[in-house]
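Researcher: Please predict.
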Amino acid sequence: MNDHTIAVVGAGASGTLASVALLRHTGAHVVLIDTAPTGPGVAYSTTCPRHQLNVSACSMSALPDEPDDLLTWLSSHGHSYESWEYIPRALYGSYLAELPARIHRRGRLHRVHGHVVALRPQRSGSGLCLAFADGGELHVGRAILALGNSAPSRLTEHSSLPRDRVVDDPWAHHTQCRLRAARSVVIVGTGLTAVDIAIGLSRAGTPPAVTAISRHGLLPRAQRHGPAEPDRDLGLRANPKLDRIVATVKEALAEDRSRWRGVIDGLRPRSQELWQGLEHSEQLRFERDHRAWWNVHRHRAAPESADTLADMLVQGVLRVREGSIASLGSGADGGVTLTLADGEQTEYDVVVNATGPSTRIQDSANALIGNLLATGQARPDAHSVGLATSATGALIDREGCPSALVYALGPLRRGELFESAAIREIGMQADALGRLLARTPASAPSTSPSADGSSSPRQGRSPSTAKRQRRLQLIKRLLQLDSRTSRAQQRARR
């Protein structure tokens, strides 16, 4: 085992930012684990040129202490954008994919392709054994869970419907092709995912008729053309009650509704503090009464995306309505009959689930999350949206004790941190975690398993010899794991 090795489980945006922070702030070897490519993740893997970031380029640096890093990268790659412009998401995915190579320090980053299904603390009390779906294992000092957003909850039971009629994963590579061949599409959800789907369909020669349905029937508001409005300080005191926050926001909006974006953005730097200062009952009331309004004003569409939606609405290609789904059934013409709670029925060729990430961590299909909860190494947060963590991101177990070995960041913490899915917040979490782990190295046992599993005493070895042996052990395990993964893939192909 190498106690100076940190595994990052998940290689999307969250995992990439975590790896980069570790490379910048610690001297550890970093093992980045996933079956997907490094960097883009789901959000930035789109190939549609109309899918843009919904935040201007000047606010999307992956390095919190280098706010111009993205703009510098764009210029060095021959892309000319103003700081306030909104770049294609695919281009941002390329930026993330290149980031580890730019930060790479002395061969300390190792990439492993595989699915981690369990984390087992070592009996010695130091280090972890990562178990993979193919039976492989990897021993590391600590681990960071950077699993990104969970999959959407299923709309309803639809196992009897044709598989090509219900799209549960709107980001699957074949989804757009299936949708363009349809005559009518209903999108369940009216948030930013629904915006992306509708905009992608607008490229078709003869786009299908698109209906977007949600309980509130609200589309995201638009970002401002040109430079952003300055953030407005609302002057809220420490630990205000929910009613005070709501009243202050309403008062500020009433003063000048044309500058509402500055009011909303002015709350963002304090959102974590305000959220954690609320009683649990107030948080529940916010979710019930104010979340929908907040989401469409806080999570806005890029100006060009909003313009495209407006054109689609005017042309009648897109229709947005309010409603709750009661059931899905087989249609008379081979499609899907969608029944709303008020009894209205409509048949569509394809139904797309754009309801966003699941809001119940216990329903996660991720085997690692299931194992951590089942073994008591982790527990849900107070809202069951993500995992319970300490202020530093350490997992909290069933008994309420924070782990010294396993941490989480990004969407896994969104039940506790309110803002935990955007690049800015994930980058700040990753940077803080990297600095923390640099100050608190994992404790080392008196003996360490060698490559063949036996124990060899550490005392008496020179630091340089121990360092070489640790590196050799890591390389051997990585090679063994890659070999097992390759054999498993070959068996699967047969």
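Model: The chain has three domains: 2-151+359-493, 163-222+300-353, 242-298.
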